[in-house]
Design brief:
Number of strands: 3
Strand order of the largest sheet: 1-2-3
Number of helices: 4
Shape: elongated
Length: 107
């Protein structure tokens, strides 16, 4: 990619993040940092700091998808996968690395 193309890419990305209301310090995680995340099991698992900044926390696993990461939606505690917040697409890979999605069983 040329320098001009890269500058345009950065500008468009910052405009998209601004229009979605995503703070700059909560931008998507780099691939190098993404691979340093270690999957863990159990409710007492400590979430990465950037997920905690987004208002996510560890809880009992969801009955539908099994994901133990929750957030508050108004006054209710909901699963982050079943009820994704705006901007979830920027960090859903990080959640999937921590807790892989359940795959359907073929009969």
């Amino acid at each position: 990619m040329t320098l001009v193309g890269w500058a345009h890419y950065q500008e468009v990305g910052s405009q998209i993040n601004a229009s979605a209301g995503i703070p700059i310090d909560l931008a998507p995680v780099s691939r190098a940092r993404e691979h340093s995340i270690k999957p863990s099991s159990g409710v007492s698992a400590k979430l990465p700091e950037d997920l905690v900044k987004r208002g996510l926390f560890a809880s009992e696993p969801c009955e539908k998808c099994g994901c133990p990461i929750s957030r508050y939606l108004v006054n209710d505690q909901v699963c982050v996968r079943c009820y994704p917040p705006r901007g979830y697409h920027t960090y859903n890979d990080q959640v999937d690395l921590l807790y892989p999605r359940k795959r359907g069983v073929a009969f």
